[in-house]
From TrEMBL:
Record bears the keyword Isomerase: yes
Name used for this protein in its record: DNA 3'-5' helicase
Residues annotated as domain UvrD-like helicase ATP-binding: 10-293
Coiled coil regions in record: none
Range of residues in the leader sequence: none
Pfam families: UvrD-helicase (PF00580), UvrD_C (PF13361)
Domain UvrD-like helicase C-terminal per the UniProt entry, residue ranges: 294-559
E.C. number: 5.6.2.4
Reaction equations catalysed: Couples ATP hydrolysis with the unwinding of duplex DNA by translocating in the 3'-5' direction; ATP + H2O = ADP + phosphate + H(+)
Annotated family: Belongs to the helicase family. UvrD subfamily.
Top-level taxonomy: Bacteria, Pseudomonadati, Pseudomonadota, Alphaproteobacteria, Sphingomonadales
C-alpha cells in the first residue's frame, strides 16, 4: 500500500473507513453535506486499484460534471500513482458516448456520430428543420424552437415523441410539443447526431436490445461508483439498471436527498427509492460534517427540517469541527446596488480569506453579474463561472475542430467549422461550402482540395493548415504528432508566444490541459475520443483562476467548498424564487428552493455571509423565509 493511501485511511473515521474497505456488494451512503462522501468514494477507488495491481479490469466512476471527474482522477492518482489508466472516471454522458461508439453499429448507428453539446447549435438545427417542415405544410414556425427545453425534460424522463402529447393537460400544447419533438428527433438522426439526453437513451437501447453489451460492461468494469446519486435522472437510473442486469450488485452510490437541485431535469428522491428496491444496498450513514463550523451545521439542519419530501432514515448532520466565532453574519442593505457595493467592500477589506478561497453564490447568474462589476471596479479579481459557448480563441477552436475532424473525416459540418476557424486565424476567406462542393465534384478529399486551393492562391498559412487537415484525415492514428506540429505554427501566428494565445483568449486552463494531453508521452494514449469529448465538455467549465473570487450559481457549486462564502439575494421572490412563492409553501418548487439554500450555505469551510436588499430593481422585498427558518431573522 502507498503511504498516501495509508494516510488517508488512517485519517478517516471508523464508519468512513468501513465504507472504503467493504468493497463487495451494493451499498448506499446516505449522508449530508461535508460528511466525506466524495472523499470516501475516491479512497474506495484507490483501494480497489491498489488491491488488484495484477489485474486488468477497470473501475467505472460516474460524476456529475467533467470538472468533478478531473479532480477525482487527480486525487486517485495522488493516492495510487500510475493506476488511473485502469479507471473510467467521467460523467454519464462520457460513459454513454464510449459505449455508443464501440457498439452503436449494432443499432445501425454510425459510430462517428456528432454530439450536439451547444444549445445554440441545437437551436439552429431545429430552426432549419422547422423551416423545411413549414414549407412542407406542417403547422410549425421558427418560434416553436421554444419547445426545446420541454423536449429535454421529456427525454430525460424517457418519454418518446409518440407518447409526449398525452403528458400535457392542454391538448393543443401537447400536440404542438409532440410535433416539434418528432421533427427534432428526425433531424438529429438525419444529421447523424446526438444530444446529451440522446446519448443516455441510445446507450439504454444498446444495453437492452443488443445481446452481450451489458455483459461486456460488467466484465470490463466489475466495480461501479456513483457520486451525487441524488441528482440522477430517470433515464440515467435506467441505464444503471439495464447495465447491471439481474445479478450484478457491485454498485456503490453516495447521495444526499436534501441536495437534490435538478428536480426540473427529472431528478427525484424516487431514484434513491428505486435503487434501494432494485439493488437492496447496504445502507451506510455518515453523520459527522467535517466541512462547516457548528453554527452553520445547526442552521442547515433547521432549514431543511421544513421540507417534507425526505428520506426518513437519514440522520441530521453533526458538526465535527470545533466552535468558531462569527461563523455566520447577516447583512441587510437598502437596495440591490448597495448590496453589490457592500459585498465588494467586504471582500476587499477582508484580510483573512484569500480571494481564491472566497465564493459568492446566487440563485441566478443575473444577480451575480453586477457583483462581478462591483468587485472589478475595486480591483478585485473575480470570475463568473458559467457555461461558455465556445472558446474565444480561433486558434483553439481550430485545434478542437481538427481533433473532431480526425474522428469524423467525412463530416462536412466539422469541415465547415475548421474552415471557419482557419479563416479567423488567418484573417482570410476560404468558403467552406464552395470548397466542399468542388471537392465532391472532383472526387477529392476536402482537405486535399483545401490545401491545393490555398497553395494556388498563395496563402501559405492556410495551405499549411489544410495540409495538416489532410494528414489527419488520411491517418487518424497520427493525430497527436500532427497537432503537436501544428501548435508552433498557430503560436507563431498569434505573436510567437504561447502565453499570448492562452492569456489573450482567456482559455488558459483548457488550453493548458489540452497541451498537456497532446504532449503527454504516456504509454497508453487516451483514446482520441476521450480527449475530444473532454475538450468539448471542458470548454463549458469555468476557467480556474486560483487568485480570483469565484461567483457562481448554486447549481454550479455542487460538491465544492470554500473558506468564505457569500450567499446573496436572500429575499422573498429572489430566493425563494418568484415562481416557487407563487406555487406556495407546500409546493415541490418551494422545497427545491430550500434545498438550493441548503446546498449554498453548506459550501462554507470557515465563514458564511448572507445578504439581501429591501429593494430589488425598484421593487420592495421582505426577507427570505429561509432566514427565519435558519433562526437568523432580522440580521
Ligand atoms: P457534499 O455533499 O457537499 O458533496 P461530501 O459528503 O462529498 O460533501 P467531502 O467533500 O468528501 O464531503 O468532504 C468534505 C470536507 O471534509 C473535505 O474537505 C474533506 O477532505 C473533509 N473530510 C472528510 N472526512 C474527513 C475526516 N474524517 N477527517 C477530516 N476531514 C475530513
Ligand atoms: Mg461530494
Amino acid at each position: 500500500m502507498t503511504t498516501e493511501l495509508d494516510n488517508i485511511l488512517a485519517s478517516l473515521s471508523d464508519i468512513q473507513r468501513e465504507a472504503v474497505l467493504s468493497t463487495e456488494g451494493a451499498a448506499l451512503v446516505l449522508a449530508g453535506p461535508g460528511s466525506g462522501k466524495t472523499r470516501v468514494l475516491t479512497a474506495r477507488i484507490a483501494r480497489i486499484l491498489d488491491e488488484t495491481r495484477q489485474r486488468k479490469f477497470r473501475i467505472l466512476a460516474l460524476t456529475f460534471t467533467t470538472k468533478a471527474a478531473m479532480e477525482m482522477r487527480e486525487r486517485v492518482d495522488l493516492l495510487v500513482p500510475g493506476l488511473t489508466e485502469r479507471t473510467l472516471i467521467g460523467t454519464f454522458h462520457a460513459f454513454c458516448t464510449q459505449l455508443l461508439r464501440q457498439h452503436g453499429s449494432h443499432l445501425e448507428m454510425s459510430p462517428d456520430f456528432a454530439i450536439f453539446d451547444q444549445d445554440a447549435d441545437r437551436e439552429a438545427l431545429l430552426v432549419d428543420a422547422l423551416g423545411v417542415a413549414a414549407a412542407n405544410g406542417e403547422p410549425v414556425s421558427a418560434e416553436d424552437v421554444r419547445w426545446l427545453k420541454t423536449i429535454d425534460q421529456l427525454k430525460s424522463r424517457l418519454i418518446v415523441p409518440e407518447k409526449a402529447a398525452e403528458r400535457f393537460r392542454d391538448a393543443k400544447s401537447g400536440e404542438a410539443a409532440a410535433r416539434v419533438y418528432r421533427i427534432y428527433e428526425n433531424t438529429l438522426r438525419a444529421n447523424n447526431s446526438m444530444d446529451f439526453n440522446g446519448l443516455i437513451l441510445g446507450a439504454c437501447r444498446l444495453l437492452r436490445d443488443v445481446p452481450g453489451v451489458a455483459e461486456r460492461v460488467r466484465q470490463t468494469y466489475p466495480y461501479w461508483l456513483v457520486d451525487e446519486f441524488q441528482d440522477t435522472t430517470p433515464a440515467q437510473y435506467r441505464l444503471i439498471r439495464l447495465a447491471a442486469g439481474d445479478s450484478f450488485r457491485n454498485v456503490f452510490a453516495v447521495a444526499d436527498d436534501d441536495q437534490i437541485i435538478y428536480q426540473w431535469a427529472g431528478a427525484s428522491y424516487r431514484q434513491i427509492e428505486r435503487f434501494r428496491a432494485d439493488f437492496q444496498p447496504e445502507l451506510m450513514q455518515l453523520v459527522e460534517n467535517h466541512r462547516c463550523p457548528p453554527a452553520i451545521v445547526a442552521a442547515a439542519n433547521k432549514l431543511v427540517a421544513n421540507n417534507t419530501f425526505r428520506t426518513p432514515e437519514k440522520q441530521p448532520i453533526v458538526a465535527a469541527k470545533p466552535d468558531s466565532e462569527d461563523a455566520i453574519a447577516v447583512h441587510v442593505l437598502a437596495t440591490d446596488g448597495e448590496e453589490q457595493q457592500w459585498i465588494a467592500e467586504s471582500i476587499g477589506s477582508n484580510g483573512r480569506d484569500s480571494w481564491g478561497q472566497t465564493a459568492v453564490l446566487g440563485r441566478t447568474r443575473a444577480i451575480l453579474l453586477p457583483i462581478e462589476q462591483a468587485l472589478q471596479a475595486k480591483g478585485i479579481k473575480a470570475v463568473v463561472a458559467q457555461r461558455r459557448d465556445r472558446f474565444i480563441s480561433p486558434e483553439f477552436n481550430w485545434l478542437q475542430a481538427c481533433l473532431d475532424q480526425a474522428l469524423r473525416p467525412n463530416d462536412v459540418r466539422v469541415f465547415r467549422l475548421m474552415v471557419d476557424a482557419a479563416n479567423r486565424v488567418a484573417s482570410d476567406e476560404l468558403d467552406a461550402e464552395i470548397l466542399a462542393a468542388e471537392a465532391d465534384a472532383a472526387g477529392a478529399s476536402y482537405f486535399e482540395h483545401w490545401a491545393n486551393t490555398a497553395t494556388a492562391s498563395g496563402n501559405e498559412y492556410l495551405a499549411t493548415l489544410g495540409g495538416y487537415g489532410l494528414q489527419l484525415a488520411q491517418s487518424r492514428s497520427q493525430w497527436r504528432s500532427m497537432v503537436r506540429a501544428a501548435i508552433p505554427i498557430l503560436v507563431s501566428k498569434a505573436g510567437g508566444d504561447e502565453s499570448v494565445i492562452s492569456d489573450a483568449a482567456d482559455d488558459k486552463a483548457a488550453w493548458d490541459v489540452c497541451l498537456k494531453e497532446i504532449r503527454s508521452e504516456k504509454g497508453s494514449e487516451p483514446e482520441l475520443d476521450e480527449v475530444i469529448q473532454g475538450l468539448a465538455l471542458r470548454s463549458k467549465e469555468p476557467p480556474h483562476d486560483p487568485e480570483a473570487v469565484t461567483l457562481m450559481t448554486i447549481h454550479a457549486s455542487k460538491g465544492l467548498e470554500f473558506d468564505s462564502v457569500y450567499v446573496v439575494g436572500l429575499a422573498e421572490s429572489v430566493m425563494p424564487s418568484w415562481q416557487s412563492v407563487k406555487q406556495g409553501d407546500a409546493s415541490a418548487e418551494m422545497e427545491e428552493e430550500r434545498r438550493n439554500c441548503f446546498v449554498a450555505i453548506t459550501r462554507t469551510r470557515e465563514r458564511l455571509t448572507l445578504t439581501y436588499a429591501s429593494n430589488y430593481r425598484g421593487w420592495s422585498k421582505s426577507p427570505s423565509r429561509f432566514l427565519s427558518e435558519m433562526g437568523l431573522a432580522g440580521g
